[in-house]
Specification:
Blueprint (H helix, E strand, L loop, with lengths): L3 H12 L8 H12 L2 E2 L2 H6 L3 E12 L9 H14 L4 E13 L2 E13 L3
Parallel strand pairs: 1-3
Antiparallel strand pairs: 2-4, 3-4
Length: 120
């Protein structure tokens, strides 16, 4: 019994310097960021008197033809993350353009929109 306390202290001290790295932090952070951003039309943002924060853009380069291409909703989610990073809570999605066989990409997808801040 008298050896139990030193062993527990030794184990606790050993674990205090342990570091655990995970990409879960970035995933969770992006989920939270996009959850506070809503999509609007230009007319809706104008009626709500949204303040324009800037242009947001995301892109995907498909290197091999058999590589998976992300869906449009995945790319819009990334635009929402970029909107929140600018301090916005509203996204007006413009378009996604697909270019085939451009330079080193088999397919290049670019999506863009405009970030706004709407105060309620």
């Amino acid at each position: 019994m008298k050896f139990l306390l030193p062993i527990v202290c030794f184990l606790l001290n050993g674990c205090s310097t342990a570091a655990f790295n995970s990409n879960g932090g970035v995933y969770v952070e992006n989920k939270i960021r996009k959850s506070v951003v809503n999509r609007y039309t230009y007319n809706e943002v104008w009626k709500l008197r949204g303040a324009q924060l800037g242009h947001v853009e995301t892109q995907y380069c498909q290197l091999q033809i058999e590589d998976y291409a992300p869906s449009k909703s995945t790319l819009i989610s990334q635009l929402k993350v970029e909107t929140q990073k600018l301090g916005g809570n509203a996204l007006v999605f413009d378009a996604c353009l697909i270019n085939r066989s451009t330079g080193s990409c088999n397919m290049l997808i670019k999506c863009n929109g405009m970030a706004y801040l709407i105060t309620y």
